[in-house]
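hiii so um. not sure if this is the right channel but i have a protein structure encoded as tokens and i wanna go backwards to a sequence. like what aa goes where. can anyone help
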């Protein structure tokens, strides 16, 4: 089988921004283990060959979906949903309208009408009052932690209890919501601050192709087209600032997790997932 891996990038037909969290240096001189946790953009356009490779080459067994319920319903079932070995878990990091909580049960209802206003809830830019002086992207990332901290913890907790094999964490672009969850996971694995920032910034290498992919979907086209490429491009300074604020306010990402109920045993399990 031809390998899908190019360094840490995972090159597939249907994704633009998938990479392996393995191979990153840790504070004690070790490296994270490849093939355990992947990060990615939307998985809706995976080809049949992509699915075979993910399930076969990586042993993919879990998908952690950070999109809103509206995004999931508007995009429809992705091809991995047809694979019985793969478990799907949903943790929206944005405030939701409506009362649907189990999106993968809701989507089976036929017919299903989305409440009015759900389209407008896609990819909102949330701002907490005490963070108004921060750059827009920093404010958005802090809002995930402030408004949906339970779902951030839920996504990390799912990684600790996954069956043997790989998990993939994704949202639409695989850079913002995914970037925050992945940053916390890497911090638990004792990946240094600067390496977490560098991993986040890697998406800039594929941003033009990523924006083009999302612009081809009616769900995301308007958001992609109303802003230029530069405004979509992740900047190292954004994640650096978020991590710095977590240091100042909570003693670091691990301190934030402790405050939000992600205990020592769970952190040890997540660390083991990425380290052993």
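sure thing!! here u go:
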């Amino acid at each position: 089988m031809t390998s899908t891996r190019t360094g840490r990038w995972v090159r597939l037909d249907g994704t633009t921004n998938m990479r392996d969290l393995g191979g990153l240096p840790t504070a004690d001189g070790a490296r994270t283990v490849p093939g355990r946790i992947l990060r990615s953009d939307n998985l809706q356009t995976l080809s049949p060959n992509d699915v075979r490779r993910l399930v076969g080459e990586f042993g993919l067994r879990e998908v952690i979906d950070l999109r809103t319920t509206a995004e999931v319903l508007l995009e429809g079932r992705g091809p991995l949903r047809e694979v019985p070995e793969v478990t799907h878990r949903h943790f929206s990091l944005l405030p939701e309208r409506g009362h649907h909580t189990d999106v993968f049960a809701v989507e089976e209802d036929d017919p299903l009408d989305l409440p009015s206003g759900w389209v407008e809830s896609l990819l909102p830019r949330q701002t907490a009052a005490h963070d108004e002086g921060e750059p827009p992207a920093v404010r958005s990332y802090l809002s995930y932690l402030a408004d949906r901290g339970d779902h951030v913890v839920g996504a990390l907790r799912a990684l600790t209890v996954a069956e043997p094999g790989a998990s993939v964490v994704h949202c639409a672009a695989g850079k913002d919501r995914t970037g925050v969850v992945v940053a916390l996971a890497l911090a638990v694995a004792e990946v240094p601050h600067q390496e977490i920032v560098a991993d986040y910034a890697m998406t800039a290498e594929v941003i033009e192709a990523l924006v083009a992919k999302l612009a081809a979907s009616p769900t995301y086209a308007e958001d992609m087209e109303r802003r230029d490429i530069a405004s979509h491009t992740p900047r190292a300074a954004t994640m650096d600032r978020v991590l710095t604020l977590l240091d100042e306010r909570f003693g670091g990402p691990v301190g934030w997790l402790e405050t939000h109920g992600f205990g020592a045993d769970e952190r040890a399990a997540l660390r083991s997932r990425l380290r052993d």
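oh and Residues 236-250 form the longest helix (15 residues).
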